[in-house]
Amino acid sequence: MNNIFKTERKAVAKTMRRLYKQNLTTSSGGNVSARNKDGYVFITASQTDKSCIKWQEIIVFDANHNNLTPELRPSMEYNMHLEIYTQRNDVFAIVHSHPIYASTFAVTDINLKSSLTGEARFVLGEVAITDYKLMGTTDLAIVCANSLRNSDVAIMKNHGAICVGKNLFEAFDRMEVLEFTAQLNFNAIMLKKCNCLNDSELEQIDKLKVQ
């Protein structure tokens, strides 16, 4: 087993295990990646138990997208991660999973509102929508990366959710807040009552993000 970049691979594996522990994905679903300042990408391998994935099961791509760990098979969504990194120079971590409430909105025509609470707006911003494309395809990689050009969070139609960040914690936090916000949205729909923040209040929150 290739022992390169042990620290980075441990961090990716830990985040993947944390997703499973928080019920944000299934044992075989979702994927996590990180990129370092030199352009190397570290991503979960395919056909691994995400609940107990080890750092040795994290693949390493160099800056030219060559697999430096050929004994490992990349996640079928690795092209999606690489395409996002190509389009977003400010992104250094990506979390993709299938949380139940966010995925519920992915299979409906109801838009998930991030305007219910200040935290949701501050952490998530506007939630983008990614059109459905077959999983693991170049088409999905392109439409997903395009949807995240001006957003850090996206609902993937009939699929799940994806969040990006400047580090693994930020990407994970966005996924956790997204799922919490999706449950709030669902509950508000069930109660037939939803008091969203108004435009002025949202503007104040958005200004905090650029300070």
Question: Can you tag this structure with a few keywords?
Answer:
L-fuculose-1-phosphate Aldolase, 7 strands, 40% helix, alpha+beta
Report the top-level CATH class: Alpha Beta
Radius of gyration, CA atoms, in whole angstroms:
17 Å
The CATH homologous superfamily name equals: Class II aldolase/adducin N-terminal domain
The CATH topology comes to L-fuculose-1-phosphate Aldolase
Rounded mean pLDDT is 95
Cα distance spanning the termini? 45 Å
What is the beta-strand fraction?
5-15%
Structure characterization notes:
- Helix content is 40%, strand content 15%.
- It has seven helices and seven strands; from the N terminus they run αβββαβααβαββαα.
- A seven-stranded mixed beta sheet has the order 3-2-1-4-7-6-5, with helices on both faces.
- Helix 2 packs parallel to helix 5 and helix 4 packs across helix 6.
- The relative contact order is 0.15.
Topology:
Layout: H1 6-21, E1 31-35, E2 41-44, E3 58-61, H2 78-87, E4 93-97, H3 100-106, H4 118-124, E5 128-130, H5 138-147, E6 153-156, E7 160-165, H6 168-191, H7 199-209
Parallel strand pairs: 5-6
Antiparallel strand pairs: 1-2, 1-4, 2-3, 4-7, 6-7
Helix pairs in contact: 2-5, 3-6, 4-6
